[in-house]
Amino acid sequence: MYQPLFMVLQICFQKGEGACEDQQEKFPGAMSTSNTTSTHPAAFLLMGIPGLEHLHIWISIPFCSAYTLALLGNCTLLLIIQVDAALHEPMYLFLAMLATIDLVLSSTTLPKMLAIFWFRDREINFFACLVQMFFLHSFSIMESAVLLAMAFDRYVAICKPLHYTTVLTGSLITKIGMAAVARAVTLMTPLPFLLRGFHYCRGPVIAHCYCEHMAVVRLACGDTRFNSIYGIAVAMLIGVLDLFFIILSYIFILQTVLQLSSQEARYKAFGTCVSHIGAILAFYTPAVISSFMHRMAHHAAPHVHILLANLYLLFPPMINPIIYGVKTKQIRERVLGVFLRKDV
Question: 24-28, 82-86, 111-115, 310-314: lowest mean pLDDT where?
Answer without folding.
Answer: 24-28
